[in-house]
Every structure is written in C-alpha cells, then in structure tokens.
Amino acid sequence: MNGTPSPDRPAAGARGARLLVAIIGGGFLLLIAAFVGMIFLVHDEARLNAVGPIAAAPGAERGGVVFHGTANIWEVRGRLTLDGERQASVAIDFVGPTGQPAPAELAVRLGLERADDGAAAQALEHRLVRPGSLVATSAPLAPGRWRLRITLPEIEAVQEFRVEP
To answer: What's the whole-model pTM score?
Structure first.
C-alpha cells in the first residue's frame, strides 16, 4: 500500500498479453482452416456473367444476352438469343490461355434445364463451326427461368436466362 508494487500487477499484464496472443493466433488458425475448407466446399461449376443485352432483331425477336466467363483454362464467350417461337440460339467461343481456339476434339456437352424445378438437363445438340466455336438451337422453350449448362472435362459452366411468355 505504500507505493510498493504488488506482485499481482505483473501477472495481470502478462495475462493480458497472453490473451491478445491467443486471440490473434486463434484468428489466424481460423483463417487457415477456412482456406483449407474451401477445397471441399467448391463445386465443379462456374457461373458465367451476363455482359449485356442483345436487342430484338429478325431471327432474335425476343432479344438475348451476351455472356462471358472462365471454365477451367477456357475463356467462354457466348451469345444466347430467343426468336419469336421461343427457340434459343446459342453461339459459344472457347479461347485458351494463350489466345488459341479450343481444339476440335475438346469434349463439350450442352444442356438446357428449368431453373425452377430439379429436372435433369435436356441435351442440346450442337455443331462445330470452326475450332473453338460452336452453335446450337433448342426446341421451343416454356416461359420461365432456364439454365444453359456447358459441360467440359472437369468443370461445368452455367448461364441463367429468362424466357418471357
């Protein structure tokens, strides 16, 4: 009490330092665990981004959308339009990391599925226009939300669109 330091004071400072180190260390370990956990939570599905609309024109009376994204090593550039009968026309270009087109033997499958129900995707037949570029046309689509699925080795790219009544 006479100004002599109490033995509890240094222990309280050390306890506070230990608590601070424990909080920082725990946060760091949590961050590492989150990064490791991402490996198990990531789906083999890449969302493609709608870049902009396509105005209505002959053969695309209902307009459409330009989309772009990356699936595995391939840059995917596409256009999806709807005609007056609600048939979807799809044109897709695959560009590699050095700007080369995808080889003609690249295994690509296209499918269309309703986003509203859990039904399996309907296969969409396509034809190769030139290496890395393909086109496809669907049967008339019912109004609602749809997904275009582009299946490549090891990954699937998805573009959502809406068909108006």
So the answer is: 0.72
Tokens found for residue 26? 């725990």
At 55 the pLDDT is 96
Q: How far apart are CA 146 and CA 143, in angstroms?
A: 9
* Alpha-carbon span 136 to 117, nearest angstrom: 23
Query: With b meaning 16 or more CB within 10 Å and e meaning fewer, what string describes 8-24?
Result: eeeeeeeeeeeeeeeee
Cβ atoms 156, 46 nearer than 8 A: yes
**Rounded Cα gap, residues 94 and 137, in angstroms:** 18
Structural domains counted in the chain? 2
For residues 29 and 109, membership in a common domain is answered with: no
Phi, psi (degrees; rounded to nearest 5) at 158: -130, 135
- The residue segments making up the domain with residue 102 are 45-163
Helix (H, G, I), strand (E, B) or coil at 22: helix
Instruction: Mark whether 9 and 58 lie in a shared domain.
Output: no
* 95 shares a domain with 141: yes
